[in-house]
Amino acid sequence: MNTIGIIAEYNPFHNGHSYQLKKAKELFHADYVIIAMSGNFVQRGLPAVLDKFSRTEMALKNGADFVFEIPTVFATASAEYFAAAGIGLLDALGCVDAVSFGCETPDLPLMSYVAEILAHEPKDYKTRLHSYLKNGEPFPAAREKAVIGYCRANGLPGFHIQKEAREANLKSLLESPNNILALEYLKAVKRSHFTLKPVPVLREGAGYHDKDLHKKYCSATAIRAHLFNKSTKLSSEAPNGLSRFLPECTAEALLAPGARFLTEQDFSSMLYYKLLMGRESGFGQFADCSAELSNRILNLLPHYRDYQGFCETLKRKEVTYSRISRILLHILLDITGKDIADARSYGFVPYLRLLGFRRDAAGLFGTIQKKAKRPLITKPPKHAALLDAKARAVFEKDVFASDLYYGALAQKTGAGQKPEYRRGMVIL
């Protein structure tokens, strides 16, 4: 019995995701596909377009057999922590044989070599990285330059054979968003000495940040951009209508008359209140927030207008918009550095929260129950109470984040929402 895992956000689930699910299963001859997915807030520091149970249902209808939730403290963290948590979750299930990921440069030997550098950080690489960071380079750019410099100085498989082509692949590997996440997945596997086999799937269609709807498979970025662009007609009859890029279940949810979705702007007032309440103590205790950035938030708080605008105000050359957005979300959700440390002490996986599964995969459910290395949560009110104090505190961050999400959605739509503890699994 072969089981393959995929780490995803599905924000929202589109045809490209459906393609990856089918391709991963085909390449690995998998009997089952398990998804480790973000909850109601995602890695870029934003609320998901659709809630986690809606996205779970979409994944199950399009080839997934099980969907587990990545804890909020890591789903909203850096790419490194997001990947480590996803990989840790798949390993902790005790039955996953491989991990599949989309990428723009599916050169596995090259990816593995670079992941080895990033996982173990040889002295020459670290020296180069620190030098670039000291010069004020943003971390992603500094890391790219350090890896390329290290490879040029120390060699790279095939570098002497097709130097120009190999170096172009290396540069692409370090610049493209899906490649960067793929490297983080491989790095996490190597650091933890897991046996998960990597199964890369070449990304088809538009690039990660491409906002045009002109390819067979468009990006989630493009879908969100058109979804929130009020000047764009979103009916299935429109030339650039979204429906042709979406599975039927996603199209029904996104394009329904009167459909409403959350953005970070819907949390602007809440965030401002939280920032005002933190003026005395500062924000250095929150995850990923340095003392310098805390002071910058305090100094610029009088200029606060809304969530997006404050991200733009705070960003600098060495601190990206996405990192700022994540930090502000950590402040909003009360995720501290201690919370991250406590969750990491469990190998990034304090528990296994099952969001949904297919009935015809119930045979694997029994295997998971027997082999899982962490407590399995299928009935939150009952099973969460059995967690130890630190794990329970991490889980309560998931509960708070979801209740905040559903509360904001209720305010926006005028429709009542169930709290987290009253929501059951999706079973198809």
Q: Might you state the CATH topology name of the largest domain?
A: Rossmann fold
* Largest beta-sheet details: 8 strands, mixed
CATH class assignment of the largest domain: Alpha Beta
Count of DSSP-assigned helices: 19
Rg for CA atoms: 21 Å
What is the arithmetic mean of pLDDT? 91
Structural class designation? alpha/beta
Provide the descriptors you would attach to this structure in a database record.
428 residues; alpha/beta; Rossmann fold; 3 domains; two-stranded antiparallel ribbon; 19 helices
Describe it for me?
This protein is an alpha/beta fold and about 425 residues long. It has helices at about 15-30, 50-60, 70-75, 80-90, 110-120, 125-135, 140-155, 165-175, 175-190, 220-225, 250-255, 270-275, 290-300, 305-315, 320-335, 335-345, 360-370, 380-385, 390-415, and strands spanning about 5-10, 30-35, 40, 45, 65-70, 100-105, 195-200, 350-355, 375, 425. The strands form two sheets. Strands 1, 2, 5, 6, 7, 8, 9 and 10 form an eight-stranded mixed β-sheet that branches. The protein is globular, with a radius of gyration of 21 Å. The two termini are about 20 Å apart.
Quick recap:
This protein has 428 residues and is α/β, with parallel strands linked by helices. It has helices spanning 15-28, 52-61, 72-75, 79-92, 108-120, 123-134, 139-154, 163-175, 177-192, 220-227, 248-254, 268-277, 291-300, 307-314, 321-333, 337-344, 362-371, 380-383, 389-413, and strands spanning 3-8, 32-37, 41-42, 46-47, 66-69, 98-103, 197-202, 352-357, 376-377, 426-427.
